[in-house]
Amino acid sequence: MRRRDFLAASLASLVPVALATPALAKYPDRAVRLIIPRGAGGVLDVVGRHWCNGIAKSLGASVYIENIAGAGGVIGMASAAKANPDGYSLLLGSTSDIVLIPLEQRKLSFNAESDFQPISVTATSTGSVAVHAGLPVNTLAELIDYAKANASKLNYASVGAGTMSHLIMEQFRQQAGLPEILHVPYRTGASAFNDLVAGVVQMQAVFITTPTIELHRAGQIKILAAASSKRLSGAPEIPTAAEAGLPNFIGEMSFGIFAPKNTPAPIVEMLNAKTQEILADPEFQQTLANAGLDPVLGSTPESAAEYFRNERTRWRPVVDSIGVKEG
Fold first, then answer.
1. Is residue 324 over pLDDT 80?
2. How far is CA 117 from CA 80, 89, 256, in A?
C-alpha cells in the first residue's frame, strides 16, 4: 500500500471514532486562534497563513492568526501556555520557540516541553546567508574574504539574541573562521529584513521563502548560500554552503502546531488528522514548495513530541558554544 493510501485509510478510521466523543460534540462552534510568537511578516506567518487557510476549510470555522511578539518569542509562548486548553487557542511553534528558548533561558513562566501538547510537525524552512545588494561580494567565499579584511565595518541583523537568525549567523562566523562581527538584534523579522534591504545592516540569516527569493532575483538582496545539504527545488540557482567549503553549516527551522497541555485528546487527534489531510494534498504541498518550504508528512502527536526532543539534542552543542543564556 502506498504511503498516501495508508495515511488516508488511517485517517478514515480515526475521524469517525473521534467525532463520537463528547469533547468534539460542538467543536469548533466559534473562531479558532493560532498564536504566532513573532511579529507579522516573517516566515512563521507564511507557514501559519497556509495552515489556517487549509484548516479553516476543513473545520468549517474561522481560524485566525494573532501575532504576539516580544522577548524573542517568550511573550507569545507564555500567552499560548496560559490559554484555556479547549482547542480554541493553538500555537505555531518553531525550532526557535520550542527548542532554543528552553535551552537558552533558565527562568521562564512556562516549560516549552511540558506545557504544550504537540499536534503535528508541519514543515521545514532552510536558512541562508544574505547580504545587502550594495555589499561588494557575490559568493559566500567572497564574503568570507571580505569579512576577514573588513570585520570592523560589518554588522548583521537577527530577530533577537539566541534566535535561529542569530545562531545561524554565529555558526557561519565560527565555521568560516571570521572575527567578531557586530550583532544587531531586532524585535521582529520584518523590521530586520527591511533594514537589510535598505542597507542599514549588511548581513542577515534569512529563510528562503517566496519574498526573499523574489527580492534576491530582483537584485535587492543577495542570497549567497543555502544552509542545507542540497540545493532547493524552488531556488536551484542558490548554491549550498557545502559548495562554498562549509559542509557542516546547516541551518534549518522546523515548524509545528501545538495546543496548551490538557487539551482534550480527541481534539488533538482530530486536529492532527485534519492537518495530515491538508499536508497530504498535492496542491497544498506545491503551495508550500512555492514558498520555499518542505512539508513534513505523517506526523502524529507522539512523533511530533519525539521530533522536537531530538531537535533539542541536536542544537544544544551549538547553543552551548555560543553561550547565550538568560535568567
1. no
2. 11, 12, 11
